[in-house]
Amino acid sequence: MLNETFSNPSELDRIDTPILSVSDLNAAVRHQLETRFSPLWVEGEIAQLTMASSGHIYFTLKDAGAQVRCALFRTRAARLAWQPRQGDKVRARAQVTLYEARGEFQLTIDTLVKGGLGTLYERFLQLKSELEAGGLFDAERKKPLPGFPRTIGIITSPQAAALHDVITTLSRRAPYARLILYPTLVQGAEATAQIVQAIASANRHGAADVLLLCRGGGSLEDLWCFNEAAVVRAIAASALPLVCGVGHETDTTLADLAADLRAPTPTAAAELIAPDQARMRSLLEMQQGRLRQRLTRQIDEAAMRLDGYSARLRSPMALLERQQDRLNQCRTRMTHWIERTLDRHKRGLSECGLRLQALDPSQPLQRGYALITDAHGHLIDSIHKAPPQSTLQLRLADGRLEARVESVLADGS
């Protein structure tokens, strides 16, 4: 039949349109689909779910009247905070396309959320976009963590199970660290304001070297306070380094993206903050061993060089004797210099003693002079300071006299 169909060459001559290969046709259809349809949201039920070893997830999205094949590739699947299952009601943000190799119409999934949470997740994506545009998630603004924090501030609920896990981990890994709890709600309408206030209080307090914001896992609604813009901005504005350990490994909040370091769980956050004491001791012992080996090698090499120098010396003892002679000469000169210096200082001290003795105000008293003061102890060195009838104190060598001025006579009177 095939030979008969094109047995007449004139049949081919009547084909006006270009002849395409199957690959070209499928590529053109794919281009038309992706150009015609922007990414859109589709709602349905998961069926024919396949979890590939590559990490990709393939399934059919169906409703009562139709179905469509879907592909959720590994990088997107790794971001899911939940595990898709057969029969799940979901909403998918997808690109309409064609799988060229098989010519199959399909959807390439960008975002997959459980049914009933689509609106909240859309809000999450909107906030993420706005805050990311504001630079709050930029790697350049993230602060390094201290290597060995002495004080760790924990921001969580006192009733949270995560608090017990964190304290247990820190007590094991860093028993030397002081822990400060900044209590706050971690779920509900009032949690947002309390978390913001706790971060601000920790920064004002200034006692912690690093902060740990944590709570256990939960649904998107349970963790929503960690997606609020106020919390994200408070984390970004914190002067203290902040580690976020919220939820389980598959949970990702906007607080995680703004934190200086994100941990998959509260326990993992505690492990990232505090270095393992046993591991650090092991590393130190290993470094100590390497240092000992290096020093031993350097000492051995120095000893070998010394042996070489010794072999080249003709008379080591003669050199030693000359050095000893020089040392004795230096010692003798030093002794003489010290003796001369001491004698000079002794003479100086003796002269100073004689001068001080001559200046001693009590010396003239021994020769019959008196030191005269008024009733207030002020020295009288002029007749104008001792008017008639004033009382004077006369200090002699062996005591004091009290006198009254009867009259005042100036020299030459």
Fold and architecture overview:
With 413 residues, the chain is an alpha/beta fold. It has 4 domains: 7-116, OB fold (Dihydrolipoamide Acetyltransferase, E2P) (Beta Barrel), CATH 2.40.50.140; 136-275, Rossmann fold (3-Layer(aba) Sandwich), CATH 3.40.50; 278-312; 364-404, no CATH class. It is 42% helix and 21% strand. The protein has 12 helices and 13 strands. The chain has helices at 2-5, 9-13, 22-36, 74-77, 118-133, 161-173, 191-205, 229-237, 254-258, 266-273, 277-312, 316-358, and strands at residues 40-51, 57-62, 67-72, 89-99, 104-114, 151-156, 178-183, 210-215, 242-246, 261-262, 371-374, 391-396, 399-404. The strands form 3 sheets. The protein has a 5-stranded mixed barrel with strand order 1-2-3-5-4. Helix 6 (161-173) packs parallel to helix 10 and helix 7 (191-205) packs parallel to helix 8. The longest helix has 43 residues, at 316-358. It is elongated. Mean pLDDT is 86; it is low at 1-7.
